[in-house]
Design a protein that fits this description.
With 161 residues, this protein is α+β, with helices and mostly antiparallel strands. The chain has three helices and nine strands; from the N terminus they run βααββββαββββ.
């Protein structure tokens, strides 16, 4: 089951993030983005009563102003990987962003994983970002033409970029 988290899930989310990445950096980013008020969509994957996955989409600051979200991080417990939880979280989160009226999503992620959802380097070509030079920086339009003109996007302060 994929659902929004409850405050009682926050310790389990921290554990999932830390286990998936082998460090606490991403778990702390999630907590700081929440505290900063920049969390836009947050979902968990629950299997047999256990939180096994988590995804966060953050509100980006944009110039000119647009409704753009940043996907990061997405994590699945190592022993639950390969069962489709990451895809389920990504698809559910992107669907929720569409319902909310978001215009586009950016991600700094695996170049072989995120294109299956519609992310591409091509869609990110007019985006100015501290990560824009990296091959793993990709974007996806949720509204046609949303990324047709140059735009500057900044991640929440919690990302430290």
């Amino acid at each position: 089951m994929v659902r929004p988290p409850k405050p009682k899930d926050f310790p389990a989310i921290h554990a999932v993030e830390a286990a998936a990445f082998g460090r606490e950096d991403e778990a702390l980013i999630v907590e700081n983005v929440r505290a900063e008020g920049a969390a836009l969509v947050e979902l968990v994957a629950e299997e047999e009563g256990q939180i096994v996955g988590h995804i966060l989409f953050s509100r980006m600051t944009c110039e000119p102003m647009k409704r753009i979200a940043g996907l990061a991080p997405v994590a699945v417990l190592p022993d639950a990987q390969g069962r489709g939880w990451g895809q389920a979280l990504c698809r559910a989160g992107i669907d929720e962003l569409r319902r909310m009226g978001a215009e586009a999503v950016v991600v700094l992620g695996h170049v072989d994983y995120y294109p299956r959802f519609g992310f591409s380097r091509e869609a990110a070509k007019l985006i100015a970002s501290p990560y824009a030079h990296l091959p793993a920086f990709m974007a996806m339009e949720l509204v046609p033409g949303a990324l047709a003109a140059p735009i500057k996007v900044d991640y929440p302060r919690s990302f430290g970029a």
